[in-house]
Design a protein that fits this description.
By secondary structure, this protein is of the alpha+beta class. It has seven helices and ten strands. The strands form two sheets. It has an eight-stranded antiparallel sheet with strand order 4-5-7-6-8-3-2-9. The protein is elongated. The protein starts with a strand and ends with a helix.
């Protein structure tokens, strides 16, 4: 049995926790459907089906991003699904600029999102300008492990890191032979997070795929069954939501601090402007008095 949150039909407030083990340590992500509905559905589906398991973090660029999403799966149907494109989601200005830990799809043009994802590092404020760069989730635990992922530099032509073509054509052997220190996923588990405290309905595994098909999660005749999904315990979900709320509180504090800083800067500017005006008035009065004194002397 797996738990699926009972919602209002469009899943606008639906959150999903992804708990992954990696060679650099555990990482927990939470995906938010309301941030990017199409991106959320595709990413959740791929994680559920084990698409990213054992794949490498092939592009690690400090102060920019970590990119992954070239799978070593032998499931041809899953490959076809992962290579199909999805439409871009509307931009959320309140999520811009990208903050460290935000997760988005990589792409090559409008409506080009398939399976490659990236996690933003601190200092990657330029991300989000392209229409496909819409965050759909965030790292809520283990960001220190994301920061220590091994880097060979950016991919060519910007660096000497792994090339995507050989990874696709040769698989993990290309990476392990030429870039043996690259970190990779081990396995990931997926669970629905009850973010609204709504009652959750237990649904038999055999009915889950039919439900997901109706919103485009899985292609018809999926090769992997929903029995592979592993749900978290209620305590796990509560802990994840606490992490999410803590991150949101931190972002709120940062915004408040920025606003205070901007307000303080504005006050300083106003004071300096007032001092300047007063100084000009004093000089003007002094010149007028000097002029009158000169006239009396004549």
């Amino acid at each position: 049995m797996n738990k699926v949150q009972r919602g209002d039909g469009d899943g606008a407030k639906e959150d999903t926790a992804i708990r992954c083990t990696t060679t650099a340590g555990p990482i927990t992500m939470v995906l938010h459907r309301e941030w990017s509905p199409q991106g959320y559905i595709r990413a959740k589906s791929l994680f559920e089906r084990g698409y990213y398991d054992h794949s490498h973090f092939f592009r690690v660029v400090p102060h920019f991003l970590v990119q992954f999403g070239i799978s070593y799966t032998t499931d041809e149907e899953l490959k076809r699904f992962a290579e199909s494109t999805i439409q871009d989601d509307p931009k959320r200005e309140d999520l811009m600029p990208f903050r460290e830990g935000m997760i988005s799809f990589a792409g090559s043009g409008p409506n080009s999102r398939t399976s490659q994802l990236f996690i933003a590092y601190e200092g990657a404020g330029g991300l989000g300008n392209s229409p496909w760069e819409t965050p759909f989730g965030e790292v809520v635990e283990g960001m220190e492990n994301v920061r220590k992922l091994y880097s060979y530099g950016d991919m060519p032509p910007w660096g000497n890191g792994p090339q995507q073509g050989p990874i696709r054509n040769q698989g993990s052997s290309y990476v392990e032979k030429n870039f043996p220190l690259l970190d990779k996923f081990l396995t990931c588990t997926v669970s629905r997070v009850d973010s609204s405290q709504d009652v959750q309905e237990e649904i038999p595994n055999e009915n889950i795929q039919a439900m997901e098909d109706s919103v485009g999660d899985f292609p018809a005749g999926s090769g992997d069954s929903a029995d592979d999904l592993q749900g978290g315990t209620p305590d796990d979900n509560s802990n994840v939501m606490k992490m999410v709320e803590d991150r949101r509180a931190i972002r709120g504090d940062q915004t408040h601090a920025k606003n205070n800083k901007d307000g303080n800067s504005s006050s300083v500017i106003k004071i300096l402007a007032l001092i300047f005006v007063v100084g000009m008035l004093v000089q003007l009065i002094a010149r007028r008095n000097k002029s009158k004194h000169a006239e009396k002397s004549v």
